[in-house]
Amino acid sequence: MRFIELTVTETAQLEAVYLTSPNAVARRRSQCLLLSAKKHPINQLMAVFSVCRITLYHWFDRWQAEGLASLRHRPGKGRKRALAPIEQSVLEELVRDNPQNLKAVLHELATQHAVECSKDTLRRHLKKGTVAL
User: Fold this and answer.
1) 43 and 95 within one domain
2) Residue 22 falls inside a structural domain
3) pLDDT at position 14 over 90
4) pLDDT tens per residue across span 61-99
5) How many domains, the chain?
6) Same domain, 63 and 34
7) Distance from C-alpha of 30 to C-alpha of 63, rounded to nearest angstrom
8) Does residue 130 have a pLDDT over 70?
9) Helix (DSSP H) and strand (DSSP E) numbers for the chain
10) Residues 94-117, mean pLDDT to the nearest whole number
């Protein structure tokens, strides 16, 4: 059995994160650490949080190494944005050159900037910017 030992200040910090954080991942991990400090067995934590034993041990190890910073996902997790390397101004210029033909814009993106995406992805990205379609 492995449990986390918390100081009074760490317990207060984790309780504050658990009660007030808008980040669901941080709330979940802080709750797990608090329950571990209260000597809840690993098998029970595995069932409550629907994770495997190794995941819990990774959470514990990260907590001991990084503290509060360990409660959030590390940068780089998840799918990368298709149009992230392209500046909004470049996209706007390409659309101004071909306002009625997004296929031509997609072709230019693929040939000039080595970025491939769907028409819907391009449309969503442009709607977030200043270009109106």
Assistant:
1) no
2) yes
3) yes
4) 999 999 999 998 877 777 777 777 677 778 888 888 888
5) 2
6) yes
7) 9
8) no
9) 7, 0
10) 86
Task: Confirm whether 30 is domain-assigned.
Answer: yes
Round to whole Å and give the CA distance between 17 and 31.
9
One-character DSSP codes across 82-125: TTTTS-HHHHHHHHHHSTT-HHHHHHHHHHHH-----HHHHHHH
Decide if 25 is inside a domain.
yes
Regarding whether 67 and 94 lie in a shared domain, the answer is no
The one-letter amino acid at 73:
H
Enclosing domain of residue 93: 88-126
Is the pLDDT at 132 greater than 70? The verdict is no
**pLDDT, position 34:** 95
Helix axes 8-20, 24-37, angle to 10 degrees: 140
The values of phi and psi at residue 65, to 5°, are -85, -40
